[in-house]
């Protein structure tokens, strides 16, 4: 039986895209308290099912798939630029293709503006009107309004006209940054990208007997299965070790391992790898927020994904990418690995010296690279101890000397010293778990 919270989420998912949602109406329709309705609507917003806009309300929007995550809806634009919707509210759920800055003559501007675009422009009423007719939404900068007949036109075409107090440059920068952030998110491989879905997953019910395990084992050759209850909620895991010497007529819940480790669909693959290696397990059940089984991932799935990530070009570079792209590797006279890294403006704090986070990335990257030269495969950083770190100025070059203290089948230990102009500016100790491919 679904909880009231689950029922509200299911109700919201069943609504048409563009529908307006209110706490009071949801509470009335589903016979729940307004507090329960409010919490469920906020949860739906976190899931990307709805968007709440000041002075407009909450509207149902289309949940984005990973391949078009970088595309923003007009509702998201309103929130990004702290905007006010002047007209065309029924089109807020739509996704924009691109944005166009209207800093040219009207005729030239319209050559670049088409259906699904967002025209960013100041108080040029004629441009507002022509953009709507061309199928584009309008974002008016500088806090300006537009003519009433343009608002009527926007309502008719169901294309939003939004006003923001920011100038054109700031507005374009804010939108560009939001798209860039989405690109970075798109590049992070998460469990839902690699899981074997529940309709192709073999599992057992708590009411099944141990005999069922033998039947599944004969059919699939697998030895590990999640155990679920009548609501598909994960209750345990059963392996060949659990059923060894057990009576075949016993209920499986009597021999299964209860409260097994699980991951959710948004857990990163890197984090899943860490859990599997640290706990020494082969498979993990994937669950939703209500603990229902969504599918399974195996250690092989995770390792393939990690190897695939390393081969993919990055679309949106993070700070870590910016730092590691600066690395220049060489071998010194003692045949040791040395890494050079120039301190760029993006790598500094408000004082103009290297930030603590960037220093950590430099140490981690140098240690990881030298370990990979000793033992091929993937690794997970387990522990990092920074003994000291001195300020390093912008536009200077660091030399990083990682020295492998110990490397075994499962673990590696590296001592890292960082120099600037011949003086020691940092020292750290790194430990990592090594994962065989």
The chain-level mean pLDDT equals 87
The main β sheet shows up as: 6 strands, antiparallel
Low-confidence stretches: none
- The span between the termini is 43 Å
Q: What is the molecular shape?
A: flat
User: Pairing-aware structural class of the strands and helices?
Assistant: alpha+beta
Per CATH, the class of the largest domain reads: Alpha Beta
What is the CATH homologous superfamily assignment of the largest domain?
A: HprK N-terminal domain-like
Strand content: 25-35%
Count structural domains: 4
Instruction: Examine the secondary-structure arrangement and name the CATH architecture of the largest domain.
Output: 3-Layer(aba) Sandwich
What is the CA-atom radius of gyration, in angstroms? 28 Å
Task: Compute the number of helices.
Answer: 14
Extended strand count: 22
CATH fold name of the largest domain: Udp-n-acetylmuramoylalanyl-d-glutamate--2,6- Diaminopimelate Ligase, Chain: A, domain 1
The helicity comes to 25-40%
Taking strands numbered 1, 2, ... along the chain, how are they ordered across the largest sheet? Answer: 17-18-20-21-22-19
Question: If you had to describe this structure to a student in words, what would you say it looks like?
Answer:
The protein has 437 residues and is an alpha+beta fold. The chain folds into 4 domains: 1-62, Winged helix-like DNA-binding domain superfamily/Winged helix DNA-binding domain (Arc Repressor Mutant, subunit A), CATH 1.10.10; 64-184, 3-Layer(aba) Sandwich (Udp-n-acetylmuramoylalanyl-d-glutamate--2,6- Diaminopimelate Ligase, Chain: A, domain 1); 192-308, CBS-domain; 319-435, Hotdog Thioesterase (Thiol Ester Dehydrase, Chain A). It has 14 helices and 22 strands. The radius of gyration is 28 Å and the shape is flat. The two termini are 43 Å apart. The relative contact order is 0.07.
């Amino acid at each position: 039986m679904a909880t009231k919270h689950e029922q509200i989420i299911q109700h919201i998912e069943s609504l048409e895209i563009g529908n307006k949602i209110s706490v009071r109406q949801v509470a009335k329709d589903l016979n729940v308290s307004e507090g329960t309705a409010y919490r469920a609507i906020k949860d739906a917003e976190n899931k990307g099912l709805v968007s709440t806009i000041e002075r407009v309300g909450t509207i149902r929007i289309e949940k984005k798939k990973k391949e078009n995550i970088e595309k923003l809806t007009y509702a998201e634009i309103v929130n990004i630029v702290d905007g006010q919707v002047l007209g065309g509210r029924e089109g807020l759920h739509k996704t924009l293709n691109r944005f166009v800055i209207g800093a040219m003559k009207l005729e030239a501007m319209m050559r670049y503006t088409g259906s699904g675009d967002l025209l960013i422009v100041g108080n040029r009423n004629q441009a507002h009107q022509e953009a709507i007719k061309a199928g584009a939404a309008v974002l008016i900068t500088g806090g300006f309004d537009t003519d009433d007949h343009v608002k009527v036109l926007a309502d008719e075409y169901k294309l939003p006209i939004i006003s923001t107090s920011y100038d054109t440059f700031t507005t374009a920068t804010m939108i560009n940054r939001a798209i860039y952030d989405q690109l970075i998110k798109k590049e992070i491989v998460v469990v839902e990208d690699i899981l074997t879905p529940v309709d192709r997953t073999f599992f057992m019910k708590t009411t099944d007997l141990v005999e069922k395990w033998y039947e599944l084992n004969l059919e699939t050759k697998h030895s590990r299965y999640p155990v679920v209850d009548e609501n598909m909620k994960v209750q345990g895991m059963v392996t060949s070790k659990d059923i060894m010497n057990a009576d075949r007529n016993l209920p499986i819940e009597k021999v299964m391992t209860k409260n097994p480790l699980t991951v959710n669909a948004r857990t990163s693959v890197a984090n899943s790898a860490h859990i599997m290696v640290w706990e020494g397990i082969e498979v993990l059940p994937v669950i939703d927020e209500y603990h229902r089984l969504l599918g399974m991932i195996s250690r092989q799935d995770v390792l393939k994904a990690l190897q695939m990530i390393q081969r993919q070009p990055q679309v949106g570079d993070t700070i870590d990418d910016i730092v590691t792209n600066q690395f220049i590797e060489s071998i010194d006279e003692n045949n040791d690995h040395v890494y050079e890294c120039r301190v760029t403006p993006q790598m500094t704090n408000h004082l103009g010296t290297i930030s603590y986070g960037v220093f950590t990335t430099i140490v981690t990257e140098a240690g990881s690279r030298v370990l990979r030269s000793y033992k091929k495969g993937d690794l997970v950083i387990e522990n990092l101890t920074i003994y000291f770190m001195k300020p390093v100025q912008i536009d200077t070059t660091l030399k990083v000397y990682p020295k492998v203290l110990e490397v075994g089948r499962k673990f590696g230990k590296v001592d890292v010293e960082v120099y600037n102009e011949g003086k020691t500016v940092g020292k750290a100790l790194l430990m990592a778990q090594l994962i065989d491919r």
